[in-house]
Write a structure and sequence with these properties.
The chain is mostly beta strands. It contains two helices and nine strands, in the order ββββββββαβα.
């Protein structure tokens, strides 16, 4: 049994499940000025990376990304505040990630920015190294 008793579901409007059978797939970068996201590993292992966006129309190409590895054997939720871009890749085949959002699908779509996955983070280096990530503090935007 796993549980996260201190996660406030009250403000969540939706959730969705991302399943990656192929560990070569990188989903990056998705960003939101106003929407925050919450990530929970249901199965397997995911590397989640994030970067604070300085300018949503023309972001600096040299921003510093941070990352953390979420695994199914930890009852842990990673919170990314508004203003960040996120990216992810499965580190094990069949990994599943549950994502929670306080925004409706329509509101999220109106606040959606995409950036090339080659920016800010070397996905291949982290996949090949098997590095275990340390969660860095994300500034509280509340």
């Amino acid at each position: 049994m796993r549980f996260v008793n201190d996660f406030p579901l009250k403000n969540m409007q939706r959730f969705y499940l991302i399943k990656h059978d192929d560990v070569s797939v990188v989903r990056a970068w998705q960003a939101h000025r106003f929407e925050e996201k919450y990530f929970f590993a249901v199965a397997g292992k995911f590397l989640i990376a994030w970067v604070e966006i300085d300018n949503f129309d023309h972001p600096n190409m040299h921003l510093k990304a941070s990352f953390h590895i979420l695994t199914h054997n930890q009852s842990e939720i990673l919170h990314l505040p508004a203003g960040y871009a996120n990216g992810m890749m499965a580190l094990e085949p069949g990994s599943e990630l549950l994502v929670f959002s306080p925004f409706s699908l329509q509101s999220s779509g109106e606040d959606n920015y995409r950036f090339d996955k080659s920016l800010w983070f070397d996905w291949d280096a982290h996949r090949e190294s098997g590095i275990s990530g340390q969660k860095e503090d994300i500034p509280d935007k509340n």
